[in-house]
Amino acid sequence: MITTEVTFDELSALMKQAAGITVDPRELKEAAESPFDSFGLDSLGLLGIVGELENRYGQSLPPDSERCRTPREFLNLVNSTLTAGA
Predict the structure, then answer these.
(1) What's the whole-model pTM score?
(2) Keywords in UniProt for this one (predicted)?
(3) Which of 20, 60, 72, 82 is a plausible cystine mate for 32, CB 3.0–4.6 Å?
């Protein structure tokens, strides 16, 4: 059962791991409504993050996960999907 949510810290680490983009988690949280491309993350990088989260949690994310435009939108979708499937 999944009891924790994916956080801005974890998203920041995944951006580094999956796309090679370093973003301070505090900056990511403060600019959570900014588009991913303002951080240098493109759709392919976001797809890598989706794949990593699916592997980590053993659960598929919705097909539109990689179309999220902002960190807040992405985390809301991921966390609601993970907790609904728990």
Answers:
(1) 0.91
(2) Phosphopantetheine, Phosphoprotein
(3) 72
